[in-house]
Amino acid sequence: MFQFSRFVVGLALLATLAFALPSSAEDDKDPSIKEIMTKAHKGGDAILGKIGKDLAAKEPDWADVTKLSKELVGLGASLAKNKPTKGEQESWDKLTKSYNESAKALLAAAEKKETKDAKEAHKKLSGSCKGCHDAHKGK
């Protein structure tokens, strides 16, 4: 009887974990445009804001800039996989390609600890908002 009780408790625990853990399909799903923009651009806790603060320091925290830049490259790749809510796909492809190139340039500069190049790439990324929003931002 005791073994049966342990078996039932173990089975219940496994069932609970199965429902609590996200499925691998959810893990593979790319974030939405809104999720990407919130994480990368929106507010003081956004990736670009953090990188900007690091780059403004006398001695940037290159480990942090590199880590955040890698995350930005991943978000940029996910951004390109999304479909625009408005505008032509060709324009979206062109703009997301440019965004990704700038994110990769930022990462390369961070890995080489090149402040000037990192600041230029950061400025380009930060200035990319209006062009993309004018062409593609939905309501």
Q: Could you list some keywords that capture this structure?
A:
Four Helix Bundle (Hemerythrin (Met), subunit A), globular, single chain, 139 residues, mainly alpha
Could you please describe the fold and organization of this structure?
This protein is mainly α. The chain has one domain: Cytochrome c/b562 (Four Helix Bundle (Hemerythrin (Met), subunit A), Up-down Bundle). The termini are far apart.
Task: Give the secondary structure arrangement, pairings included.
Elements (H helix, E strand, L loop, with lengths): L1 H19 L3 H5 L4 H8 L6 H10 L5 H20 L7 H24 L2 H12 L2 H8 L3
Helix pairs in contact: 4-5, 4-7, 5-6, 6-7
Which CATH C-level class is it?
Mainly Alpha
The residue-averaged pLDDT reads 85
Specify Rg, calculated over alpha carbons: 21 Å
What percent of the residues sit in helical stretches (DSSP H or I)?
over 70%
Number of strand segments: 0
Order of helices and strands: HHHHHHHH
Q: What is the name of the CATH topology? A: Four Helix Bundle (Hemerythrin (Met), subunit A)
Total number of helical segments?
A: 8
Looking at CATH, the homologous superfamily is Cytochrome c/b562
- By CATH, the architecture is named Up-down Bundle
Largest sheet: none
Uncertain ranges: none
| Overall body shape | globular
- Structure class: mainly alpha
Distance between the termini: 62 Å
Please indicate the count of domains.
1
Q: Strand share of the residues? A: under 5%
